[in-house]
Design a protein that fits this description.
Elements: H1 10-23, H2 28-37, H3 42-48, H4 58-89, H5 100-115, H6 127-137, E1 140-146, H7 153-161, H8 164-173, E2 174-180, H9 184-193, E3 200-207, E4 210-217, H10 233-241, E5 250-254, E6 260-261, E7 284-288
Parallel strand pairs: 1-2
Antiparallel strand pairs: 1-3, 3-4, 5-6, 5-7
Helix pairs in contact: 1-2, 1-3, 1-9, 3-4
Length: 291
């Protein structure tokens, strides 16, 4: 029970969320256990985290384990050195979360100004702190990630999160945590929960003494593979426009850091996806300009 009665520093909270994002492990206790075993070195833990659970079984298992150990040590060393030199050449531009509690409180204040204060009780603490509280009180955590630019956000907040029946049920059975993905704390948690569309909710519960994500609810999502050097913003624009629920006037944007791609049919330029900086795996927002 690693998270119980523990207070993480902002730096270690960032490392915990980053490692959860890299490893794909939903179990926060297990992530913390692995990080502590490797002195909170995310890179080393990311390359080694499967090993503690791979217990050799029998003589053949031990023989394979021992014979492959030198190769794994060489591979891990090569991996760490490669990441080290790569980060010297291309430093990571991921900003540090310096005030996660402030990010959450600022979101609650902004939410109240926009939608009023008749809504679910948002706990003004960090993500890890609300998980600690839920573990001690044996309650569910309902995490809501807010994206103010998404076309469905206003409707969801006014009709669902402000619904009296929803408020009564959730407040009686769950600890509600919410944050904006435009803040650093919200963005880190969004990466850990692997969301890619909005509105987004995740239900987290203690299972076998560990806090684990057991359900996710997402908004509508479109998916398609594009070739970065062949397809253009024009191709992406008309792919979205062809959807029955597409707004008539819209812009495309990344989540965080936010970048907009204001391509319109009357433009003469047709940059490729690579030329505008879109990576191999991207999730984009569709911003309704008439909303």
């Amino acid at each position: 029970m690693y998270l119980e009665n523990r207070e993480l520093s902002p730096q270690n909270t960032e490392k915990l969320v980053q490692f959860q994002e890299l490893s794909g492990i939903d179990d926060l206790d297990k992530c913390m256990e692995i990080l502590e075993r490797h002195n909170w070195d995310v890179e080393t833990a990311d390359s080694l985290f499967p090993l503690p659970n791979q217990r050799p079984d029998g003589f053949t298992g031990w023989l394979f384990f021992l014979s492959s150990l030198p190769l794994r040590v060489v591979m891990v060393t090569f991996y760490c050195l490669t990441r080290f030199f790569f980060r010297i050449i291309r430093p990571e531009n991921r900003p540090a979360v310096t005030d996660p509690t402030g990010n959450v409180i600022s979101f609650i204040q902004e939410y109240n100004e926009t939608f009023g204060d008749q809504h679910l009780t948002f706990y003004p603490v960090t993500y890890c702190q609300v998980l600690n509280e839920a573990k001690k009180d044996l309650k569910f955590v309902l995490a809501y990630l807010h994206c103010k630019d998404h076309q469905d956000t206003n409707k969801f907040c006014r009709q669902t999160l402000c619904n009296p029946q929803v408020i009564e049920f959730i407040n009686s059975n769950c600890l509600m945590w919410a944050c904006s993905v435009n803040s650093l704390e919200g963005y880190r948690v969004s990466q850990a929960l692997r969301e890619n569309t909005y509105p987004f909710l995740a239900i987290i519960v203690q299972r076998e003494f560990r806090m684990t994500v057991v359900g996710r609810a997402r908004g509508q999502k479109l998916e398609r593979r594009f070739h970065r050097t062949i397809h253009t913003l024009k191709d992406l624009y008309y792919f979205i426009l062809a959807h029955p629920d597409s707004p008539y006037q819209f812009e495309m944007a990344t989540y965080f850091p936010k970048r907009t791609f204001p391509w319109q049919p009357d433009m003469d330029t047709h940059p490729t996806l690579a030329e505008v900086g879109l990576g191999a795996s991207e999730a984009l927002l569709v911003l309704d300009l008439d909303a």
